[in-house]
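request received
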Amino acid sequence: MQIHIAAGSPQSIYRQISDQIRRLAATNKLAVGDAVPSVRQLAKDLVINPNTVAKAYAELVRDGVLESQQGRGYFVARRKSIFTKAERLRRLDEALDMAVSQAITLDFTQDEIGERLQLRLEKLLPPVHRTE
Amino acid sequence: MLGELVITAQGLTRYFGRKAVVHDMELRIPRGSVTGLLGLNGAGKTTTLRMLLGFLEPTRGECQIFGRNSQSLTREDRARIGYTAEGHFLYGWMTVRQSQEFQRSTFPNFNNGLFTDTVRRFGIDPGQRNRTLSRGQRAGVSLALTLATEPELLILDDPALGLDPVSRRALNETLLDFCDGGQRTILLSSHLLDDVERVADRVAVMVHGRLLVNTTVDDFRERVAAWSLDLPPASRACESIPGLIQARALGGRTVVTVADPDQETAAAIARLSTSEPERLSVTFEDAVIAYLSRSRDSQSFLAHTGA
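response:
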């Protein structure tokens, strides 16, 4: 698992970590049950305050991305819906709104945007999700 | 919420002549935290640290370390505190190893292993004479001498001053290693905002002798916001914005940075701007710089909040 952080970014360091782990888990670069480095280890690797890593991990546990097993560390959790359907839809719309408005400013047509989105879905989602 | 407090101050004030160098400071620093003390030169950082250590008497108010008044710290209390002053003083004629022996003779619990590890991290040969060391290496020896006494509280006055990037990294790694375990506390003054953002979990900002910010790094970031307004740069109208930290000109517009924005703040900003105000993202550095370059009489404080 490789994580890059930068100080001086508009995103706080803890947010950079949690976003990257979320992404790795979402794209199956981290599989369910994979261990992530301990708080101490990741803090050491990135040369940052361990509380920053602890805060990122706590958020990921709260959101069901990671689970902590007493004495063994943190693992990628089986994906569960911890949000209501309405909340999941709200979050999806928020993410899509951002991507679509970007795409429109870049002068792409509806078809082009749809096509690129489809390609990404095929690349990122494992087959089992696609057939559902 | 803050756990055990290692450093406290109430109404701490120090005058030099008629000038209040530290003014009415309230300070609480919890055990296990790494606090970055930020401020321009002359803001009162060193004076504050010297009062905390009991080297300088406050004009008014008081401060405590480990719950004991700084003016009456005992030998035992002092043995639990490590301090490196600005500039890293070392005897030039001694070798690094002789400096180690010298320090060990006064500190019975001197940790030789920790000294050697720290010195190695800065790429120093213990046989070298102190006067042949680079500035970064001098910082390394001075830090190693202090750390090896295994203090519970480490107070560092601008340890990163003049360090090259490799020594800065060695310094950051050494500090993080030192407080691994959560029982040791570090208070360091610095001008290197990126390093403070990485290494510290709390931030304290001093402006003209006043402590304006004392909270966690994340809380600080979340509570400072900025907007770009369609308003001629020279306008003084911004001063009416609640929570204003700083207003500055940027490309014919005005950028305002505010603390704890609420609906009232947003409404005031919308009223002033002739077009829709643009919300800007704020980096840690932006937020600190806004405080450091604010005018003397503005009133927004972000102190004593967050765990």
